[in-house]
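so my prof wants the structure for this chain in the C-alpha cells format not the other one, which i didnt know existed until like an hour ago. anyway here's the sequence
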Amino acid sequence: MKLTSLSCSLSVVAVLSMSTVVQTARPSREPDVPYVPTTEVAVKAMLKLADVKKTDIVYDLGCGDGRIVIAAAKDYGARGVGIDINPVRISEAKENARKAGVTDLVRFEERDLFEADIHEATVVTLFLLPNINLKLRPKLLQKLADELGMAITVCHYPPGTSKWNKVEGLTWKGQPLLNYETVVNLIGATKTKSGLQVKAVLDTNEYETGVKVTKSQMEELRVRRHKTHPDWNYTLEPRA
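here's what i got, hopefully its the right format
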C-alpha cells in the first residue's frame, strides 16, 4: 500500500433535478473537514509521488468532487474509489466521472471515511487536516501490517518525549531533555543491533489534542500493548 497525504432520484409523481438533490441532501453527520477542492497541481503531484500504475486501486478518503480518483483513472488507467460522507460531493463526483468517461474505472461511496473498508487499496490519498490524518493513522498502519504480514510497532522514543515538557525535568541516559533539538539529536543517534539507523526531524505542525478513537474503530485493529512502556507503545498484528 502506498499513501500520499497531502444521485438523482426518480418517482412516478415527480422527477427531481440534480440541483434539487444537491440543495436538499444532507450528510449523516457533520463532515470532519470543510470542503476545499484539491488543486490540479496537488492532484498531479500526489499521484506522481505515489507512482500510480494501471494495476493500482486508488482510494481517496474524503474525496470531495472525485478529482483525485478520476485523475488516477484518466491519466494512469488505474481503478479508483472515492469515499465521502457528504451526498452532495458524491453526486458531484459521479457526474464528474461521467463527464470524464471513466465510470467503468471508478466508483464513489457515501460513507464515513473512518468506517470505510480499504482492504483492496494499493494507494490511499488524503487531502485532509493534520489532526484527521493522525486519527486515521492506526487504520492505515493496520492495513499495512495485513499487507506485509508483519507486525508494526509504534514507539515513543526516547520514552516520554512525545509528552515533552521541560518543567517535568525529563532525562534520557542521564542527559536532560532541555529542548526539542536535544530530543531530535538523541533519536537521530539511535542505531539498532542490526545496524538500522534512524532519521529524525522536528514536526512543527500543531495538532488537536484529546482526539478520541471510537470503540468500533478500535475493534477494527488487532492491537496489543507493547511490553516496554505499554501506556505509550503498541503493536499492530496482521489479521489473517
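also thought this was worth mentioning. Residues 6-24 have pLDDT under 50 and may be disordered.
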